[in-house]
Specification:
heterodimer, A: 12 helices, B: 442 residues, alpha/beta, 2 domains, ten-stranded mixed β-sheet
Chain lengths: 482, 442
Amino acid sequence: MSAASKQLDELIGREYRHGFVTTLATDTVPRGLNEAVIRMISARKHEPQFMLEWRLKAFRHWLTMREPQWANIHHPPIDYQNISYYSAPKSEKDGPRSLSELDPELLRTYEKLGIPLKEQEMLAGVAVDAVFDSVSVATTFKEKLAELGIIFCPFSEAVQKHPELVQRYLGSVVPYTDNFYATLNSAVFSDGSFCYIPPGVRCPMELSTYFRINERNTGQFERTLIIADKGAYVSYLEGCTAPMRDEHQLHAAVVELIALDDAQIKYATVQNWYPGDKEGRGGIYNFVTKRGECRGANSHISWTQVETGSAITWKYPSVVLLGDNSVGEFYSVALTNHHQQADTGTKMTHVGRNTRSTVLSKGISAGYGQNTYRGLIKVLPGAEDARNYTQCDSLLLGGQCGAHTMPYIEVRNPTAKVEHEASTSRIGEEQLFYCTQRGIAPEEAVSMIVSGFCKAVFQNLPMEFAVEAQKLLGVSLEGSTG
Amino acid sequence: MNIQLESWEHMALEQIPQFLAGSGVPWVSQARQSAFERYMAHGLPTRREEEWKYTDVAQIGKRSSFAPDSIPADPSSEAALFAWTLAQQHPHLMVFVNGYYSDGFSAIGELPDGARLQSLSELLDSSAELSPELFDAAHEHTVFGALNTALATDGAVLHLAPGTELKDPVYLLFIASGHGAAIYPRNLIIAGAGARATVIEHYFGMLDAHHFTDAITQIELAADADLQHCKLLQEGNASIHVAGIHAVQAARSRFGSQSFALGSRLARNDITSRLTGPDGHCSLDGLYLLDGKQHVDHHTRIDHLAPSCTSREYYRGILDGESHGVFNGKVIVHPAAAKTDAHQSNRNLLLSRQAEVDTKPQLEIFADDVKCTHGATVGQLDDDSLFYLRSRGVDAESARSLLLYGFANDIIGRVGEPGMRTRIQHLVLDRLPQGEQIKELL
C-alpha cells in the first residue's frame, strides 16, 4: 500500500469523527422510547388516528420482541432507550457555510467520484442558497409527474393528502409484527417517500429521493412505500454514491413495494454511509427491511443494490411472488473493507404459477471485512413451474477478511427448478501481472478487475448510477492492495 | 433383565445402567456420567435450533425408553441369514445385534500384522489402550453424541499400526432386532501413518420395527493414512436413526465417506472432517433415495484448518411420495488454510407433489488464497432425455427408471469396493419400477 493512499484513507475517515455529536436542538424529543414519545411524534406530524393506532400497536408488539441473534454480525448492544426518536429536519444553519470549511480530502473524494460542485455542496450539507436552483429543478419534475397522476411525495405529506392509499397499503407487505427492526420502525418512523403510479402509467423519469432535497435527513427510521398500479412502470433510485453526512448511528428503514397486474418496479440502492474508521470504531448500523410483493399477474419487481458503506449492513430485499407469471430479481454488490460487516441477501418466495426469480450476488471482502450472503428460495406447493437461478460469487482481497455463503433452498413443488451456484476466489496473481505488465498501476488493476467482477450487477443500474457506482468501488477499495 | 423407563425425563433419576461396558473403570463411568449430564442439560434438540431447523426429533422424546437392552438380543432369521451370506463374501465381518457384538455371527478372519479389530466393550472392560480423550466432550457434534457416550453399549475398534494395509474391507453389520430397542453403537478407527483400509457400516433392520439408533463413529487418521468409509442405511420404515461420523485428519491423509440412506423413517447423519495437517484430502459423498413418509437429513461439515487441503462433496437425492430430504453442507476455511480447494454439490430430483427438499450448502471462508465453489439444484427428470429414450422404443416407466438409476449411479460409482457397489446398485434398482430389466443390462 502506498503511503499516499494510506493517508488518503485515514483522512477520508477523519471527516466523520465529528459526525455523531448530537447537539440537542430545540425540536427534539428527549431520549428514550415509550408511548408518550410515540404519541408526540404522531401529534407533531398531525397524523390521523389510524396512524397513531398503528404506531402504538407496533410499539406494544416491539416490547415483546428481542433482537435477532442469527446474523453473522457482531456489535456492542444497542441501548434503545438512549436514542432520541424524533428530531425535526435539521436547520440549514447547522451545516458548514461553504465547501472551503470542509476537509479537503473529502472534496477530493467527491472529485474522484465526478460529482459536480453544486451537488458536492448539497451532499456535504452546505447551506444551499438561492444560487443553487435544485429546488426549482425538483419542482419542475414534480409538475410533470402530477400531470400523469403520479403521486411522489414525502411520507408525511402522503399521510395528510392521501390517507386512503396509505391506510390501504401501509404494512401490507411488511406488517408491523415482521421483525424487531421493522417493528421499531413502524412505531417511530419519522418520514420517507411515498410513491403511487396510477394504472397504465409509465413513469417518464427515474424517481429518486435526490429530488426531495428539502426532505433529506429524514433520519434514521425511514419508511418508503411504492405502489405500481395495473400496468404501471416505475424505476426508483435510493441513496447516492457520495459519502453521506449523517448523525445517527442506528438506521432501521423499511421499504415496501407493491406491484399489481402487469406492473413493474425497479428499485436501485446505492448505500455509502459512514463505515467507521480503520479500527472499526463508529460507523452506521444499517438494519433494513425491504420487501416487495408481486400481487398481480405478470408483475415484476427487481432490486439492485450497491452496498459499500455502513459498519454493519443487515438487509435482505425480498420478493413475494404471488401473481402468476410474476418475476422477482435481486442484483447485489456488497463490499466490506476495514472492519465492515455485511450480512445481506434476498428471499424469493414463489407462491404463484410460473413464477421466476433471479439472484445475482457479488460480495467483495477486503481488510478485516466480513461479508455474508444469506438467501432463501422458497417454492410453495402451488407454485407450478417455478424457476429460480441463483449465483453468488465472493472475491477476497487480503488474508484477514471473510466471505460466507448461506443459501437456504426449500422446495415443495415437483415442477420447480431451482439452481444455486457459488464461488469464492481471490484476484489471481496472473490477472494482476497481466495488468501491471501493461503499465496499469496495481491499485487501478484491482479496481478494474473488481469492476469486471461486478459488471453483471452494474448492468442493471441506470446508466449514470452505474458509472458512479464503479468509481465508488474504486475509491472504497483504496489501500486494500499491497 | 431389561430396564424400562417411563419417559426420558425419568432418566435423570436413574444412574447410568450398571451393565454397560466399562462400568468398573472409573474414568469410563465418569465420562459417561458427565456426558449424560450434558445431554440432560440440553435435552432433545428442537426446530428452533438452526442445525435442526428442518428435522423434528420430538418423536424421539415420546419413546417409552432410552435405555439400551441389558442383554444381547437374537437377530431375526432373515437377518441371521443375511449375516451368514455376508460372512461368505467378506473375510473381516463383525456383526452387532442391537448394539452388542455377536461373536457367533461374526468372522473377523485373519488380519495382517499391525491390524487389530476388537469389540469396544472388551477394551472398555479391560480399560487397556483406550485414551479417556476419546470420550471427551470435544468429540460431540450434537447432543446425540453426548447421549451415545453416556449409553454406548459396544462397537468396533480398528487399530492400524503405521504402514498397515488391509486388502479386504472391514464389514460392520448392525442388526436392529425386535420392537422398541434403543441401540447405541460406538465405533473407533485409528489409522497410523500411511495405513490404508476400507470400512463398511451397514445398518440393517426389519420392516415396521420401531427402534432407535444413536451411532457414533470416530476416525483418526495419522499422516499419509487413507481410509475409505461407506455407510449403508437399510433399516425398516419405522426406525429412527441418528448418527455421527467424525474424522480428524493429519497431513496428507485421505478420507472418503459415502453415505447411502435408503431405509428408515427418520434419519439424521452428521458427517464431519477436520483437516488439521497440510495437503490432506477429504471427499464426502451421499445418496438419499426416499419414498413414503421418510425423512432423511444429512449435515456435513468440513473444517479446513491447514494449508493446501482439498475437499470434494457430492450429494444427491431422489424424493418421492411424501418424503422430505434435507441437506446442509458446511465448508469452513479457517485463516490458516491457504490454498484450499473445496468443491461441493447437492442435486435433488423431486418426483412427487407431496415431497419436499430443503438444502443449504454453506461456505464460510476466512482466508483469501482459496478456491471454493458450491452448487445446489432441485428439479425433475429432463424431458429431452426421456423423449430420447422413448423415441428409441423404451417404455415410459423403464425410461424414467433408467434415468433415475443413472442419476443415482454417479454417486454409487464412487464406492471403491466392488461387492458393496453392486449391493447398493441392486438395492436401488429394487426400488425402481422395471428395475429387474435394468439389472439384466448391467
